[in-house]
Structures are given as structure tokens and as C-alpha cells.
Request: fold
Amino acid sequence: MATPSSQSAPDPARDWLVLHHAAGIGGRTLRLLLDSFSGPSAILAATGTQLSAAGLSRPAIEALRESDSPGVASDLAWLQQPGNHILTWQHPHYPPLLKQLPDPPPLLYVHGDATLLSEPQLAMVGSRNPSASGQQTATDFARHLAAAGLVVTSGLALGIDTASHQGALDAGTATIAVMGTGLDRVYPASNRDLARRIAERGALVSEFPTGTPPLAENFPRRNRIISGLSLGTLVVEAALRSGSLISARLAAEQGREVFAIPGSIHNPLARGCHLLIRQGAKLVETAHDVIDELGPLASACQSDRADTDTPRDESGQLAEEYTQLLENMGFDPVPIDRLVTMSGLTPAEVSSMLLQLEMDGHVASSPGGIYNRLK
Reply:
């Protein structure tokens, strides 16, 4: 998938960054200004009287005159580095789903494949301290959903976020990490290697300028981007006070689907998911539940993939490689890693084939990445 080239002309990017860094000019104010002026350069060239007539306060007007902000210079230096992009509202690769929000970020910093932000996505969120089974469930679901054609989007946090990104990478697909810091920082630092691998195959995204530290107030704002980029949000494991419930609420307010995986009534990390289900979230047991609910766009992704990875040959019989995988399984429960070893296929290939076989009724999945042959 081709990526847009970094802006070679510095002036348009600089104008947007001056507005982005100016105190007192948030997204809503900038929208009002763009209704009155033809673009950022026209805003910066306007007189104080013109800006005041457009509704800008005196302190904000004065802030616009501070055009030599160190933050602007830092962002421009970052932009010149390979793989870095700034997507403004006017950029052709600004994600259309995010643009539908009442408060979309005026610009996004992206490291990696910026075109990926317009692909059909599923947000996956959950506890930072999940149970072992919850973590494995997130990895398994992400692997299957990514193999089905959805881009898995999460927040690079420890726990379910990390497992979700890892599952997508295991499937050999791209994944998107939306961060609550500037993209010159990685939080938590222990996920630095994961962030590098995500950037190589997918994208790191933030609305925050370079140098922004991991402040607590940044993460609810980060969560609205995770849900806003996505067709739906899947909550894997969450306590009643989990920040993941904020993401789910934002998704519902944005008119997106909300999914939740139930758990044991004795597991406090399942109570947030149970609450969401009582409030109307879709109860999810298999990856197919998500694919089935997301509607025509997600179904089209699944159909496109099925055209190239169909489990049947021209005569309508199960294709040879799928038959061989079923023979490797036998009729006893078997973990996916053993199937990888027995078949000699890659984890991505096995995950994709198992998803097709599950949807075709040949196998059933169980928590922990275990599969049973049905016929």
C-alpha cells in the first residue's frame, strides 16, 4: 500500500502548525476561522480587526503572532524525517470516519503508512492488567480479525492493547497505534520495540505535538481517536472503572458499534464487559460475530479476502491445503502453535485458514487459541 510523500514545501505545514500550537485555538475555533478565511495562510495574514470580527479573542490573536514557537520548529524538523507525515483536515489522506466527529483533531502526526488510516478498522481495548486468558483472547481475536481484512487499532498501552497489536502482527498484517504522547516518545517505554514493528508494517498516530509527555488528560482524547477511526470498538476485558469503558462510551456516542466479550461472573475484569452488554453492546463469542455485525463495509473486506483465500477449489471441494490442515488437527483439541509446527505454515497462514474453516463450519475455536475439528 503506497504512502503519501511527506510535504516537501514547508510553508503550508508551518501555517497549520502555527495555528495548532497557538494558545486559545482549538479545533472548534479553527473551524470557525476556516469558515471566515480561505485557509491557514489567510488566517495568519489577517489583521487583528479581521480576526476579532471572526470571533477570535484578543489573547488568541496575540498568540498567533508568536510564529517562531520552538514547538513549530520541532514539529517541522520531525516532519523532515523519513516516514513522518502530517495530515490536516484538508489533506486527501485525512481519515474520513474521523472527519465525521464533532471535534476531529485539526491535524494528525503519523509515522508509517498514512493511507492505512482510511482502511476499515476495528478498535480493540481493555485492561492494562488482564488475566492470562484475557490476554490470549485479545491476541487470538486480533489475529483472526486482521486475517479477515480489518485493521486492528489500539492504544499501545500494556495489557489488552499490546496483545491486540501483537495478534495483528502475528497475522502478518498492519496495525495502528494511537498514542497519548508526541510521536518522538513511546509510552510505556517497554513497548518501544513493539512501536517500531508497528511503524514498519502499519502506523503510529497522535494529535499531540512532538515533545508531549504522557499526561493523564491526554488519554481520554486519545481514546476518541481510537474509536473515531474505527467501524466499531471491541472491549476484551475491563473492570467497572476501566478507561476502556470511556472508549466504548465514545464509540457509542460516535454512532459506532460496540462489542464486548463476556467472562466469568467471578472475574472482576469481566464486570465492565458485562455492564456494556447490559447497556446494549453486542455480546461476542467468535470473530465471526464481529464481522457479521459490522455491515456491508466489513463484509466487503471479508469477501475480498475470500476471493483470494477461498478454502474450495474449482470443483467445490475443500482445497488441498485446507484438507491437510484438518488432517493435522485430528478430532482432539489442539492449540494453534502446534498446528503451525505440524503444518509447516506460517502463523499468519494458519490463522487465516482457521478463520475460513471456522466460518465454513469445519472447526470451532475456544479461549486460549484452541481449535476443535467438527467434521
